[in-house]
User: Fold this.
Amino acid sequence: MKSISNGLTIRFGRFELLNDFWYIMSHSMKELGSPYHSKYYLETLLHILGNKSELAIAYTKDLQPAGGSLIIYHANKATLLHA
Assistant:
């Protein structure tokens, strides 16, 4: 895959990835001209959803966050709420 050959890696987690996820989303939305939710909003979602939620972050070979998604699991399905 092209992403692997370019050195991208994916990490899955929850609160330990929150800062990187918020950084990615807030900068991406700012470039689109819209504000993004607060970190508190995301933290609250993770608390409320418990083990039915997860963050996925793509990192460059220099370990810089490059993209991410908030994944919500329900009824054997995964939905990307924010990406």
Q: What stands out?
A: The mean pLDDT is 87. The beta strands are 9-13, 53-59, 65-74, 77-82. The longest strand covers residues 65-74.
